[in-house]
Design the sequence.
């Protein structure tokens, strides 16, 4: 390892807690963290895992473009991630985990001092899910990322109820990926956000954030948001699902629909940036410019770009 990690010195120590955010700051509510140590941890603990994870570990590359996985320990990763956020003008970010029960991710959270928060990954059907959620929340996770379309389950399944009971008790926030996915194992039979309706209804104080504007299921997500006031949307990613939508939406139209239907208090900014390529500054610019062009007030832009994520994921305290 070299003496620097993208401008952050090895051995740098974060304060016990970074300062809270303020209006004008930007919080990215949907980013990812991939690294060789994370994959190594997962594969060693799960020897029968899907071969694509093993190939990624062997090749040191991940994603459709075969980008290089960073080989950084948890402290180095926290420093490296902070430097990326500094360069992009992002105050804080929320990692949405795709691998469960990761000590590496726990250590990154601790090392970041609050600069990088995270949602853990849990199969809500598992009998062990409530106990694992308690451990993860105690370790500093802010909530959970659920992947029903990738893992092929329904959140309305009664088997998930003990998990949701525990999540409600602990005050966990939930981000859910519905809609289309780049995961070759995904199954669109589980992609409709309408499936969340009885859960969001029965846990009205629990915030649910549907990622990527519903990723091709915008109408269903907005209808769900009409019925359940605890349902929010995030704007993360390229939103290239619009290319396949028969309505021919532009990003401005999608934002306008979401802001009109849900209000600025229920839309969160995100880029879906990973760690195998550059931070998606172009997406951040595009979305911020779109909000300005829509004529949102400074107060409402701050809600979308910062304050909603701070409130829902309890980032400043």
Sequence:
């Amino acid at each position: 390892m070299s003496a620097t990690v993208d401008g952050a010195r090895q051995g740098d120590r974060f304060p016990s807690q970074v300062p809270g955010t303020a209006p004008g700051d930007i919080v990215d509510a949907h980013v990812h963290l991939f690294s060789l140590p994370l994959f190594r941890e997962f594969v060693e603990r799960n020897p029968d895992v899907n071969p694509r994870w093993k190939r990624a570990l062997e090749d040191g590359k991940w994603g459709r473009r075969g980008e290089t996985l960073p080989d950084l320990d948890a402290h180095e990763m926290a420093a490296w991630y902070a430097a990326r956020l500094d360069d992009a003008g992002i105050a804080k970010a929320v990692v949405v985990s795709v691998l469960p029960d990761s000590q590496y991710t726990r250590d990154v959270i601790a090392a970041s001092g609050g600069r990088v928060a995270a949602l853990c990954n849990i199969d809500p059907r598992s009998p062990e899910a409530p106990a694992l959620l308690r451990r993860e929340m105690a370790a500093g996770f802010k909530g959970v990322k659920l992947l029903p379309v990738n893992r092929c389950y329904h959140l309305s399944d009664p088997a998930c109820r003990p998990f949701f009971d525990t999540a409600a008790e602990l005050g966990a926030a939930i981000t859910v990926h519905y809609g289309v996915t780049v995961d070759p194992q995904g199954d669109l039979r589980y992609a409709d956000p309408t499936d969340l309706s009885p859960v969001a209804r029965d846990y009205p104080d629990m915030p649910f954030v549907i990622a990527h504007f519903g990723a091709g299921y915008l109408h269903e997500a907005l209808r769900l948001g009409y019925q359940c006031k605890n349902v929010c949307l995030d704007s993360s990613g390229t939103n290239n699902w619009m290319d396949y939508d028969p309505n021919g939406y532009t990003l401005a139209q999608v934002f306008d629909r979401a802001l009109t239907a849900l209000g600025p208090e229920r839309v969160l900014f995100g880029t879906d940036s990973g760690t195998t390529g550059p931070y998606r500054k172009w997406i951040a610019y595009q979305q911020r410019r779109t909000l300005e062009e829509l004529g949102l007030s400074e107060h409402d832009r701050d809600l979308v770009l910062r304050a909603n994520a701070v409130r829902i994921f309890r980032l400043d305290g």
Q: What stands out?
A: The CA atoms of residues 8 and 83 lie 6 Å apart. The longest helix spans residues 298-313.
